[in-house]
Structures are given as structure tokens and as C-alpha cells.
Amino acid sequence: MTALEFSFSLDQAQSSLKPFALKLTRDMEDANDLLQETMLKAYSNREKFSEGTNLKAWLYTIMKNTFITNYQRLSRRNTFIDTTENLHYINSSDHVTQNMAYSHFALDDMNDAIEALDDVYKVPFMMHFKGFKYHEIADHLQIPIGTVKNRIHIARKELKTKLKVYKDR
């Protein structure tokens, strides 16, 4: 099989490999990268392919092995072994697990800030938060859609000002 014929066969098989790549990676960009790496490896090793055998099976095997190799490499890279004598890194408090108390305080502050809004702004904001569309809110409150958008904007702006303490958290 010539390089051109092999390249054409790879191109034909590529569409059936993409769903498998997506199933393995669960991410479209990673799937595209895996597919591209598989095609590159297959083309680079085309002399190892036995003509008359199943090309798709060969490509699936390359893809699966490439995925496993990349996964193992990533796992090793993320594994940290503390080699210091006093286990400084393991005992450091750089990474602390937070309990849920902080989020309860934040939620309480958000609810208080929403309750402090004037009803003119709070009602359209809460309706929009619950999933109503602008035109549904306008119909329900019998006000123009522009007024609805303006009131929701003002409510968001006031909430952002009142809750700015949580901006970087």
C-alpha cells in the first residue's frame, strides 16, 4: 500500500474514531487531540500495518493505548512525593479543606441582600432568577419589557455592590 493510499484509508476511518475518542476523554478538545495523535502515530508507523488486516481495529488499538499512556503520564505528574526529612510539604497548610460554614454565611448574606431590595426590583429579579423570560415577566407584571430589563439590571448592580466582599472568593 502506498503512502497516498494509506493516507486516504486513514482519512476514511477518522470519522468512526472520533466518537470513541470522545467517549475516552469526555472532552471535545481532548478528543480532537487524541484523534490527531492517533493519526500521526498510525501514519508514522504505516510500515508496521499488515495489508489485508482490519485498519480500524489497528487504529482503535493505537488510540486506546495512546489514551492509556497519556492518562498514566498525567497521573504520575500529579502524584507528589514529599522527600524532605521533616515532611514539610505534607504538614503545610497551603491546601486546607474548608467546611461548609463559610458558604452558609455567604448564602445568608445573599438572601439578606435580596430581601433588602425594593419590591420594584426584587420581584422581576426573582422571577428572572426562577427562569421566567423577560416577556413573561413583562406580561405578568403588566410593564414594558424594557422596564423589566432595567429593573433586573439595577437589582444585579445593587446586589453586586452589597456583596462585593465575596468578589474574590
UniProtKB/TrEMBL annotation:
One Gene Ontology term of the biological-process aspect is: DNA-templated transcription initiation
Q: Which Gene3D superfamilies match?
A: 1.10.1740.10, Winged helix-like DNA-binding domain superfamily/Winged helix DNA-binding domain
Pinpoint the RNA polymerase sigma factor 70 region 4 type domain residues: 111-159
Give the Pfam families listed for this entry: Sigma70_r2, Sigma70_r4_2
Q: What keywords are annotated for this sequence in UniProt? A: Sigma factor, Transcription, Transcription regulation
Molecular function terms from GO:
DNA binding; sigma factor activity
InterPro entries in alphabetical order:
RNA_pol_sigma-70-like (IPR039425), RNA_pol_sigma-70_dom (IPR014284), RNA_pol_sigma70_r2 (IPR007627), RNA_pol_sigma70_r4_t2 (IPR013249), RNA_pol_sigma_r2 (IPR013325), RNA_pol_sigma_r3/r4-like (IPR013324), WH-like_DNA-bd_sf (IPR036388)
Q: Classify the source by domain of life.
A: Bacteria
Ranges where the RNA polymerase sigma-70 region domain occurs: 15-76
PANTHER family, sorted: RNA POLYMERASE ECF-TYPE SIGMA FACTO, RNA POLYMERASE SIGMA FACTOR RFAY-RELATED
Q: Which family does it belong to?
A: Belongs to the sigma-70 factor family. ECF subfamily.
Q: What is this protein called?
A: RNA polymerase sigma-70 factor (ECF subfamily)
The organism is Sediminitomix flava
From the broadest rank down, the organism's phylogenetic lineage runs: Bacteria, Pseudomonadati, Bacteroidota, Cytophagia, Cytophagales
